[in-house]
Structure to design on (429 residues):
């Protein structure tokens, strides 16, 4: 499917492209809510997805890391529209489950462009990939090797190694990746079981803040590559994982800085073009492509947290410090986004009918506030540390860079729907 066809497909899904700019689409949505074929309604949170941002991220990747094939980590945002769009650009996919693999195969993506990266796969999912002959997958334990031997002995295996992820927002090494001192045992078992190890992979952690983590990880991968070769495995794949920041992150370890370390590291340590190099960017592709719009359902004056004791409870009667209650929350889009307070840069979208998208508001006009999610749970707090001007019920907020690990973890707890997405194509390239 070409990208023009993807856009036509979006229209036939009932979403359609709502203009060329995020600000324009938001305004239209708030003033004349788009309801045809969806139930996006005027008082619901919604996302604006920009297809052009996906394309511009793809082009930037190709320019900075030409040797590394991106396999989009679809877990970060399985939006079918984004997935189709990326597939049409030629991007591969990193999948964690049968449902994700089915989604990708149904789009007609070649099996060679899919890697199954869950180190502890459900046996029935393994049976499925065996039937589909989708061979590329990762492992990091003896138990997984025995399972693979039982169910899909011809799989092409990629050993996931533990790397230093202490400088990343979401550390993955505490859960996945074999320490180098255990690699030999695993290689030896794979040899005894006559399994087929073809590569090495790692993940430096999501939202990586230290570009040098990539150099260190590639160095470790080289060591394991050589070790595996000495066992007689024909090593042909290096998978450099994810961790790359979205374009909305302009300070610290930007994608450009990570690529400036990773690209040369791969060329230096894996000079042979016989080694296929892939990566698994998730948030890099979708993070900045989605903006989340949030309505204020109500407010009340702040309570001083440590004084919630029935005898001494006191409200900040005269202050402008408010508790705002919005229409999405921790059990909705924010469950994972709350793990990274630096990314929770919630701003004013509409105040008293005036639009502020993309505009800065004077710091003097802002007051500390807390933002609470839509369910009745007192754990449903989105931010305890935001500064906003005084807002009212009916005003709106927005969060840029909201495409990764956001609505994908949302539940319908308390009967609240998962926000819908409207699309634009800002044609920025
Ligand atoms: C195995 C694997 N690959 C890739 C990713 C994507 O990471 P990121 O979104 O940081 O690029 C993840 C995220 O959890 C992952 O677990």
């Amino acid at each position: 499917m070409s990208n023009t066809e993807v856009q036509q497909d979006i229209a036939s899904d009932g979403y359609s492209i709502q203009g060329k700019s995020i600000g324009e689409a938001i305004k239209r949505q708030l003033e004349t809510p788009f309801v045809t074929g969806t139930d996006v309604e005027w008082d619901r949170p919604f996302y604006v997805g920009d297809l052009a941002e996906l394309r511009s991220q793809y082009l930037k990747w190709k320019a900075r890391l030409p040797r590394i094939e991106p396999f989009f980590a679809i877990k970060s945002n399985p939006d079918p529209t984004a997935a189709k769009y990326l597939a049409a650009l030629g991007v591969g996919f990193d999948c964690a489950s049968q449902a994700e693999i089915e989604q990708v195969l149904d789009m007609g993506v070649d099996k060679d462009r899919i890697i199954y990266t869950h180190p502890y796969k459900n046996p029935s999912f393994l049976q499925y990939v065996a039937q589909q002959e989708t061979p590329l997958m990762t492992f990091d334990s003896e138990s997984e090797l025995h399972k693979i031997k039982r169910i899909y002995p011809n799989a092409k295996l990629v050993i996931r190694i533990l790397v230093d992820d202490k400088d990343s927002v979401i550390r993955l090494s505490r859960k996945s990746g074999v320490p180098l001192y255990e690699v030999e045992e695993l290689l030896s078992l794979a040899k005894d079981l006559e399994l087929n190890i073809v590569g090495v992979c790692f993940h430096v952690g999501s939202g990586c803040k230290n570009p040098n983590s990539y150099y260190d990880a590639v160095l470790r991968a080289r060591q394991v590559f050589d070790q595996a070769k000495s066992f007689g495995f024909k090593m042909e794949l290096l998978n450099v994982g994810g961790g790359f920041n979205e374009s909305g992150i302009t300070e610290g370890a930007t994608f450009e800085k990570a690529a400036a370390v990773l690209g040369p590291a791969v060329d230096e340590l894996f000079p042979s073009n016989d080694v296929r190099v892939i990566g698994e960017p998730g948030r890099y592709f979708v993070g900045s492509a989605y903006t989340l719009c949030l309505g204020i359902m109500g407010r009340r004056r702040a309570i001083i947290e440590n004084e919630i004791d029935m005898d001494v409870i006191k409200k900040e009667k005269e202050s402008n410090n408010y508790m705002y209650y919005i229409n999405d929350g921790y059990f909705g889009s924010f469950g994972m986004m709350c793990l990274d307070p630096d990314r929770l840069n919630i701003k004013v979208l509409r105040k008293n009918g005036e639009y502020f998208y993309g505009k800065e508001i004077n710091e003097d006009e802002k007051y500390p506030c807390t933002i609470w999610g839509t369910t009745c749970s007192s754990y449903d707090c989105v931010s305890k540390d935001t500064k906003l001007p005084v807002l009212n019920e009916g005003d709106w907020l927005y969060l840029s860079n909201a495409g990764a690990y956001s609505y994908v973890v949302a539940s319908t707890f308390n009967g609240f729907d998962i926000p819908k997405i409207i699309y634009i194509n800002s044609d920025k390239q």
